């Protein structure tokens, strides 16, 4: 399993700041360490949404036709899990930044 990102929580804020200010390496590879602020919307992964209440026969095409104009970006992936009425929808970019931006649904 390849992991690209991890989130580490410190019990003390000062320890987190010390960690961010230092350089870190694993097997001679530099690590990119940065502060994550959950209150900063620019850091949220807003290219993904959880959709619930789906009929088990709802297709990716059906969701694309409904969500793409509303979101303003292309839907690139639909991930269904064990819960049959829910799916994670992944867009090509954050909604409101794509080719449909500024358009409204009639």
From TrEMBL:
MF terms in GO: nucleic acid binding
Record InterPro entries: RBD_domain_sf
SUPFAM superfamilies per the UniProt record, alphabetical: RNA-binding domain, RBD
Official protein name in the record: Uncharacterized protein
Species classification: Eukaryota, Metazoa, Spiralia, Lophotrochozoa, Mollusca
């Amino acid at each position: 399993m390849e992991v690209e990102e991890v989130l580490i929580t410190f019990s003390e804020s000062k320890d987190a700041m010390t960690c961010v200010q230092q350089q870190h390496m694993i097997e001679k590879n530099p690590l990119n360490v940065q502060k994550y602020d959950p209150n900063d919307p620019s850091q949220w992964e807003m290219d993904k949404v959880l959709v619930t209440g789906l009929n088990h026969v709802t297709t990716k095409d059906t969701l694309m036709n409904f969500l793409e104009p509303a979101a303003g970006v292309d839907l690139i992936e639909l991930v269904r899990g064990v819960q049959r009425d829910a799916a994670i929808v992944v867009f090509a970019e954050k909604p409101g930044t794509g080719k449909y931006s500024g358009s409204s649904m009639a």
